[in-house]
Design goal:
single chain; 350 residues; four-stranded parallel beta sheet; 18% strand
Length: 350
């Protein structure tokens, strides 16, 4: 299956099309030791090029920073990559974000492709051209919009994922269903969670999750490549999640796990504003918990948590913008939330 992302420089997302890649010039593969140990040999058998280099960085969101980018750029320089070279991001969301960022700034931009190896990267990070790294102030505050030349999603890579990684990826799919297509919630609720979390579900389940996510995201990105309007809706749950990740130094939660908590927090806010019913809030909470996703985070200092909202990239002119379901299947951008109501919604997490 192929899905076209119709941006200024269009590209395709290939889903279970098989890997058989032939490139001119030099190619560098960015990955980490865990992914390399599991899948690199298989990938190398599928690639033909003039020269091939491997760039390996430490695994984990806590290493998604400028220090690691400098390490990647140094290895690209040592390999004497030029403007006609290609960088392949081979890994999860962290590798995808960093690879795209490095490609966008190396010699003012070289080509790159994404070959995601996690469900989260397949349904979200690898598609759409968002790149970036974290710093002390927050998540993804440093980055660029830089589209890949192609994305290759292969469900075979997902068979080696553990329960947490699969759950984290599904959280992003649940996010899209809540904001864009309530009918997808029925499909998700019918998935056998036990087999899914053991990666023992049928390939068609993975393919449908990836395909539907990519189709939705491609449609949105085609309308709003630089996130000035409708694309903001994809950040449902993320405004809260990014604060949680930063407060826990990116060590306690996978990104999708933090998003799951963030969705629950956003739903509480939506309920307080009269946009979502208590039954709808419970339905989503139960669905998240069905797939072993966390829904609670203890806020140590509610006022510091509140102030952190103003570092969110969507916020502007001293106004916090929230993405909220109103109701399930429809998302809205809300920026006139009274502080008192926001704090009241956060009291469920202290």
């Amino acid at each position: 299956m192929q899905v076209e992302v119709k941006v200024k420089n269009p590209y395709k997302v290939f889903i279970n099309e098989g890997l058989n890649l032939n490139f001119k010039g030099k190619v560098a593969i960015l990955t980490n030791p865990k992914i390399a140990g599991l899948h690199l040999k298989n990938l190398l058998e599928k690639i033909e090029c003039e020269e091939l280099f491997i760039i390996s960085v430490k695994d984990g969101e806590e290493y998604k920073n400028l220090s690691t980018i400098e390490e990647i750029l140094n290895q690209m320089c040592n390999s004497k990559l030029d403007r006609k070279s290609l960088l392949i991001s081979f890994g999860g969301g962290v590798i995808s974000d960093m690879g795209g960022f490095a490609a966008s700034i190396y010699q003012r931009g070289i080509k790159f492709i994404n070959i995601p190896t996690t469900l989260l990267a397949c349904v979200d990070a690898a598609v759409g051209g968002k790149t970036g790294v974290n710093n002390h102030f927050g998540k993804n505050l440093i980055g660029t919009f830089y589209q890949p030349k192609a994305v290759y999603c292969e469900s075979a890579f997902l068979r080696t994922l553990g329960q947490r990684e699969l759950s984290a990826g599904l959280a992003e799919f649940i996010k899209m269903a809540i904001i864009f297509d309530a009918n997808l919630l029925d499909f998700i609720e019918k998935i056998d969670a036990k087999n899914f979390l053991k990666a023992q579900c049928e390939d068609e389940i993975f393919i449908k999750i990836i395909a539907k996510s990519v189709e939705l995201k491609a449609k949105i990105v085609s309308k709003d490549e630089k996130e000035s309007g409708v694309r903001m809706l994809l950040n449902y749950g993320h405004t809260f999640a990014h604060i949680i990740e930063n407060e826990t130094h990116y060590k306690s939660y996978l990104h999708g796990e933090a998003v799951a908590i963030g969705m629950n927090m956003a739903n509480h806010l939506s309920y307080e504003l009269g946009l979502l019913s208590k039954e709808e809030c419970e339905r989503i909470k139960n669905l998240l918990q069905k797939f072993a996703l966390p829904t609670y985070y203890k806020i140590e200092n509610i006022h510091e948590f509140y102030q952190a909202f103003f570092l969110d990239k969507k916020s502007a002119n001293h106004k916090i913008r929230f993405i909220l379901p109103a109701p399930l299947g429809k998302g809205i951008i809300k920026e006139d939330v009274p502080k008192s109501i926001l704090l009241k919604s956060l009291e469920h997490f202290i």
